[in-house]
């Protein structure tokens, strides 16, 4: 069981990288009908267990949380929403390991292999873009590597106990309160008024060489700086860290950040409704972004990376200017 426990940890780590357009199949060597597979979408992941394996213990699948196949389909189902917490990912990984080990009779993780790919990105339906914009779309990747599932991958390193104990994240409700406070201002917001809003939140204004800087020491984070962007004398964007910046990336730190991001995103959905989009950077499979566009035109964003979680508010004017800048860039103006 120890090797299966280790594989469960590996699968949890791998599932974090199943983003939009990513497909992952974990199967038995020499038995293509004994498998679990995952299809990533912008808001969920469709997890399935093979329903065509002749010797499968289907009663075991039903007893361990797998949903029966839909009409006209063969596979057992276990869908889940993203971003997911570590507890949710672990529950799915344990369900998958149970299917592989017991329902399909696979004796050891050494008897497993995987295949994965990321499909090419496509333009929204009904939209015509300049060629340059099509060229910037993600071409996809096949095969796609999942290092945590490689048979000879290095054992994960644990962070120093003192560092792990000190990790801090702003509470999700506080994150939403701060973002909502900024997003619902009476736009446009002049530069001086923006600094007044910052002080209303208990943030500090520091002056160095005649330039004002905003600092959020109330959160107790390792990076208290708040980026305030301006254009034409108006505030366009406020960006802040909502977690500590992690020095040494580990599975524990990735779990900490992933849970903080998932909790804040869930609180955001409760406050503003479903997010309008989700993005994954092709060079960082652990990255995630959630955006909400408010009725007043302001846009709220939360971003997860391997080393931190950040959040931002873009003013309605900033959103419009960014759209104009993008159009000019892609049209060559």
Structure characteristics:
eight-stranded antiparallel β-sheet; six-stranded antiparallel β-sheet; TY-Chap N-terminal domain-containing protein; TY-Chap_N; 9 helices; alpha+beta; 333 residues; 14 strands; DUF6301
Write up what this structure looks like.
33% of the residues lie in helices and 26% in strands. The chain is of the alpha+beta class. The chain has an 8-stranded antiparallel β-sheet. It is elongated and about 70 Å long. The chain starts with a helix and ends with a helix. The model has no long low-confidence stretch (mean pLDDT 92). Residues 122-162 are annotated as: Disordered. Pfam families: DUF6301, TY-Chap3.
Structural class: alpha+beta
Give helix % range.
25-40%
Ends distance: 62 Å
What is the number of E strands? 14
SS element count, helices: 9
Overall average residue pLDDT: 92
Q: Report the C-alpha radius of gyration, rounded.
A: 23 Å
Largest sheet, strands/sense/barrel: 8 strands, antiparallel
Short description:
This protein has nine helices and 14 strands. The chain has helices at 2-15, 58-63, 86-103, 131-135, 161-166, 172-183, 191-200, 251-272, 316-331, and strands spanning 22-28, 31-40, 44-49, 76-77, 80-81, 112-118, 204-208, 211-215, 225-231, 234-241, 277-281, 284-293, 299-304, 309-314.
How would the blueprint of this fold be written?
Blueprint: H1 2-15, E1 22-28, E2 31-40, E3 44-49, H2 58-63, E4 76-77, E5 80-81, H3 86-103, E6 112-118, H4 131-135, H5 161-166, H6 172-183, H7 191-200, E7 204-208, E8 211-215, E9 225-231, E10 234-241, H8 251-272, E11 277-281, E12 284-293, E13 299-304, E14 309-314, H9 316-331
Antiparallel strand pairs: 1-2, 1-6, 2-3, 3-4, 3-5, 7-8, 8-9, 9-10, 10-14, 11-12, 12-13, 13-14
């Amino acid at each position: 069981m120890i090797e299966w426990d280790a594989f469960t940890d590996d699968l949890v780590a791998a599932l974090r990288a199943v983003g939009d357009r990513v497909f992952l199949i974990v199967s038995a060597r020499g038995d293509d009908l004994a498998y679990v597979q995952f299809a990533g979408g912008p808001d969920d992941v469709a997890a399935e267990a093979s329903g065509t394996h002749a010797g499968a213990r289907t009663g075991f699948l039903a007893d361990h949380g797998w949903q029966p196949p839909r009409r006209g389909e063969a596979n057992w189902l276990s869908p889940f929403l993203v971003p997911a917490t570590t507890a949710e990912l672990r529950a799915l990984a344990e369900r998958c390991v149970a299917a592989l080990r017991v329902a399909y009779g696979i004796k050891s993780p050494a008897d497993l292999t995987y295949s994965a790919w990321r499909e090419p990105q496509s333009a929204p339906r009904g939209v015509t873009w300049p060629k340059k914009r099509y060229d910037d779309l993600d071409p996809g990747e096949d095969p796609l590597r999942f290092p945590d599932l490689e048979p000879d991958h290095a054992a994960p390193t644990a962070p120093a106990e003192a560092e792990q104990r000190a990790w801090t994240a702003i509470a999700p409700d506080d994150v939403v309160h701060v973002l909502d406070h900024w997003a619902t201002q009476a736009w446009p917001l002049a530069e001086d008024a923006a600094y007044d809003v910052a002080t209303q939140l208990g943030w500090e204004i520091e002056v160095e060489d005649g330039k004002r800087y905003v600092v959020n020491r109330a959160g107790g984070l390792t990076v208290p700086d708040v980026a305030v962007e301006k254009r034409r004398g108006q505030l366009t964007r406020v960006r802040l860290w909502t977690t500590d910046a992690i020095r040494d990336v580990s599975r524990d730190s990735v779990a900490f950040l992933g849970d903080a991001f998932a909790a804040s995103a869930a609180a955001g959905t409760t406050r503003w409704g479903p997010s309008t989009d989700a993005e994954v950077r092709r060079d960082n499979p652990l990255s995630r972004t959630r955006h909400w566009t408010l009725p007043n035109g302001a846009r709220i964003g939360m971003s997860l990376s391997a080393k931190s979680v950040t959040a931002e508010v873009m003013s309605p004017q900033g959103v419009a200017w960014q759209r104009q800048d993008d159009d000019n860039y892609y049209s060559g103006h």
